[in-house]
Amino acid sequence: MPQHRLNTLESGQNYTAQELDSFVSTTDVVLIATNEEQLFSEPERHYRVVRSFKGFFEHSSENGEKYFRDKKAYLVEKV
Question: Which domain of life is it from (predicted)?
């Protein structure tokens, strides 16, 4: 089966861990997974994109400031 490079993820759609791995390797995004560090442990496991965000707030431990990161983020969960 040929590999298709993903340009975006869509909420409500399922993707394999292998597809998500390829996506984050070629795209400047953040993935937040409900199964924590196990996201890429099983390449054929399927995940559903629950929600996407245009950005997020990040706290700097160096200066105590909070910054809005204009970076796409996706929440994914095991199917």
Answer: Bacteria
